[in-house]
């Protein structure tokens, strides 16, 4: 009766139970759970264990045979069995704890095995997940340690009481402390005494409030120098519990802090300098709105920075100029071009004074900003107007004088022609008994010729004066010189002069064409006029560049030479004649220097009387 009840109980136990009998390990008792596991095997089945290997793995069968032969029990933990597919489920691998217990007879001989299989699939899956999580945790922990130990920062963890749980190796490198040092004691001792109380208070307050912190303090380095560091930490939150750990980093900011101090001092000094300059100085943001005025601006306008506002400088201008100035400012802000203009700005007494307003844009890591000045030039402007009026009056007077000289010289030519005609008629018809009549007639003829030459030179001087402002163009020296020589062909043939041209060093010149022709004509004609009767005239014209790169023209001859009578300022005087026995008015060199000086150049003369003369014309200073 009891045996039937026991079999009934074992048959319905959720764990798989079976007995294997004999060396062939044939199934004896098989409960329902084991039948389901092995695919319908029962005690009536003639199959042996070895024939159930489609469910039982070969290694498990070998272990069963070993237990039967040795009589030593064994438990296989979390052993996987491949269960075949059914009508409702796919083939799956499930895990079991399989206990193998030998069945012994009365004489302690092994007659079979008792198999007890308990499914632990969920526990095995949980263990697998736990193993994978642990492996991932170890991997992440190793990565985190690499990051914390290679970052250029001191990484730390403290608990709610402020005790250090972890600190990265950088702390030991920075402070020079041994790894055996007690962090909770040594750390505060390394904080600068002036910062220690503040650091303790801020850290304690943050932990009590359950929030993070961020503050700067000075920490002593391994060389004994205190360096500014930034300490930042955040709590580890696990709602709804209070935080029990704070994780943070200490970053050295000493150089940045010193740079910020230098910038603050520099800004203060620049503001002091700007406030000390008697000029209106202001700055504006990227949109063109003024955000700073110096002290002189307030004194000049009688308005404070708040009264002036971001655009008030436009309202200070003369009403008729405000619209144009504002449009120009908006355009410069949009394009980044420099701003400059001459406007009338109202002073605190209501007087409008001329100002030059300039502004330039500076772009850096903070973005574009504008820096501007308003310079009072009213006195200079009025003086310039006075000077301009005087200049205009002098120019008008000069033009009138030139016109008068030109007209007078032109009008005097006719009486001169009349006198010469009468003199010729008198010479032809009249007779003189005076022994010196021929000499007197020659002297009179020479005087008339000299007067005619003087009138021509005066007219030429006025004409050249009017051409001083001729526009500059790139001229070929050789070509222009050939044109001048063509006009002097008669004098060249008459003197049988030998003329050499060498313009290879500086073949071209940016100059006024009429001015260059006048200079060449004057120098060449003088060389032809003042030749020596003792030798064949040789005239050399050459161009070159001075040591400073200034172009020059050199004209050399072997004529009569001269004593260069220049004034103390190095200029030739009008009507100064070197050789009175040769016809001339003494205005050639004066006219020459007027042309060269008007273009910003100068003339140098070297001469040996009776031997040679050399003129060097430096076109520009």
UniProtKB/TrEMBL annotation:
Identify the InterPro entries for this entry: HATPase_C_sf (IPR036890), HATPase_dom (IPR003594), His_kinase_dom (IPR005467), HisK_dim/P_dom (IPR003661), HisK_dim/P_sf (IPR036097), PAC (IPR001610), PAS (IPR000014), PAS-assoc_C (IPR000700)
For this UniProt entry, the molecular function terms from Gene Ontology, in alphabetical order, are: phosphorelay sensor kinase activity
Listed A to Z, the keywords are:
Kinase, Phosphoprotein, Transferase
| EC number annotated for this UniProt entry | 2.7.13.3
| Domain (PAS): residue spans on this chain | 266-308
**Entry-linked Pfam families:** HATPase_c, PAS_3
Give the main EC class.
Answer: transferase
Q: Which residues form the Histidine kinase domain?
A: 407-621
Matching PROSITE patterns: HIS_KIN, PAC, PAS
Catalytic activity entry: ATP + protein L-histidine = ADP + protein N-phospho-L-histidine
Domain called PAC: residue spans: 213-265, 339-389
**CDD domains with a match to the protein in the record:** HATPase (cd00075), HisKA (cd00082), PAS (cd00130)
NCBIfam families, alphabetized: sensory_box
What's the protein called, per UniProt?
histidine kinase
